[in-house]
């Protein structure tokens, strides 16, 4: 029975994690991004799998996965920690590595090369000291081997349902099934725990008393999503576009193609200039059925996933 359950789960996991083809046009310069990475940098990934699509709906963000940069094996100075990471990763000591939590794999150490074709963003903790960066790295490396907590993902989704679908009192037991245990985690939770341990703020609750004093309160690390590192005012956003404006000095010198015009997703067939002009001249008073359905879908989705503060 256990073998059958394991077989069924592996099939479901494989179906959820199956990725669509990467975008034809790269959005970031991967080689430059890797060169500029620093220890404890958070790397956000715009996923291409089915589970990533679910996370996008739940979190209302394009960022569906997060990993943390730990450098190369040769850069890990703590002997026991280095030995532990070496057992988990059998590769070149000069390969840039990340620690991440993946559905079906748990918390693992991976070469960042696996995300070469994906849309990435770096979130860098502003003013983080070298000592604290090492503490963050030690925490995430000690979590390597932990299982992925799919229950946590489902529990987190409960916070995004409106009160009339899921009463707030039903959310009060969130994560109580695993309180005090560190055997399972998800990607953003792992990073949030690491920074919380060194008292580095991500999105803290801030209370100002009547006398003007301010006090920071820590959020439960299990409530964080990848996009929270993007929203955090305490993390700097670092982008390395495929062709940077600074590299060519003037945006007017970008190598635009003047013959074809593409739809916004880049996957649809190109429109010739004459066709695009003709399309632009068409009456726009009555939107097509496809546009109408898209508007209705977005309206319903916005209503369904409205923030709980709004009632």
Helix and strand layout, with pairings?
Blueprint: H1 2-17, H2 30-36, E1 42-45, H3 50-59, E2 65-71, H4 79-88, E3 97-102, E4 106-111, E5 120-125, H5 130-142, E6 147-148, H6 150-158, E7 184-185, H7 187-197, E8 205-208, E9 214-217, H8 226-231, E10 235-238, H9 245-248, E11 260-261, E12 271-272, H10 273-281, H11 289-304
Parallel strand pairs: 6-7
Antiparallel strand pairs: 1-2, 1-5, 2-3, 3-4, 5-10, 8-9, 11-12
Write out key terms for the chains shown.
36% helix, single chain, 12 strands, two-stranded parallel sheet, globular, 2 domains, endopeptidase fold (from Nostoc punctiforme), alpha+beta, 11 helices
Number-wise, the strands total 12
Q: How far is the N terminus from the C terminus?
A: 45 Å
CATH architecture classification of the largest domain: Alpha-Beta Complex
CATH class of the largest domain: Alpha Beta
> Unreliable segments (pLDDT under 50, ≥5 consecutive)?
170-183, 284-311
Percent of residues in β-strands: 15-25%
Number of helices: 11
Largest sheet data: 6 strands, antiparallel
Give the overall shape: globular
- Going by helix content, strand content and strand pairing, the class is alpha+beta
Give the averaged pLDDT, no decimals. Answer: 75
CATH topology tier name of the largest domain: endopeptidase fold (from Nostoc punctiforme)
């Amino acid at each position: 029975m256990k073998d059958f359950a394991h077989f069924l789960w592996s099939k479901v996991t494989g179906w959820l994690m199956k990725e669509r083809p990467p975008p034809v046009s790269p959005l970031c310069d991967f080689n430059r991004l890797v060169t500029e990475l620093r220890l404890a940098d958070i790397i956000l990934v715009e996923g291409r799998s089915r589970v990533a699509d679910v996370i996008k709906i739940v979190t209302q963000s394009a960022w569906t996965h997060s990993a943390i940069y730990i450098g190369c094996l040769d850069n890990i100075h703590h002997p026991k920690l280095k030995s532990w990471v070496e057992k988990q990763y059998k590769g070149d000591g000069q390969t840039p590595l990340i620690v991440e939590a993946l559905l079906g794999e748990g918390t693992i150490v991976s070469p960042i090369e696996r995300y070469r074709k994906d849309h990435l963003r770096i979130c860098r903790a502003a003013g983080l000291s070298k000592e604290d960066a090492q503490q963050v790295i030690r925490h995430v490396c000690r979590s390597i081997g932990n299982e992925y907590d799919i229950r946590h993902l489902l529990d987190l989704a409960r916070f995004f349902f409106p009160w009339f679908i899921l009463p707030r009192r039903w959310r009060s037991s969130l994560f109580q099934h695993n309180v005090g245990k560190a055997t399972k985690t998800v990607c953003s939770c792992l990073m949030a725990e690491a920074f919380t341990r060194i008292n580095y703020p991500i999105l803290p609750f801030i209370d100002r008393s009547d006398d003007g004093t301010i006090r920071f309160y820590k959020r439960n690390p299990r409530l964080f999503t990848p996009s929270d590192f993007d929203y955090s005012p305490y993390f700097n956003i670092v982008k390395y576009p495929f062709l940077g404006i600074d590299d060519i000095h003037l945006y007017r010198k970008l190598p635009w193609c003047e013959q074809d015009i593409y739809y916004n997703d880049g996957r649809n067939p190109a429109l010739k200039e004459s066709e695009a002009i003709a399309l632009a001249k068409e009456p726009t008073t009555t939107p097509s059925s496809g546009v109408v359905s898209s508007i209705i879908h977005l309206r319903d989705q916005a209503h369904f996933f409205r923030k709980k503060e709004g009632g």
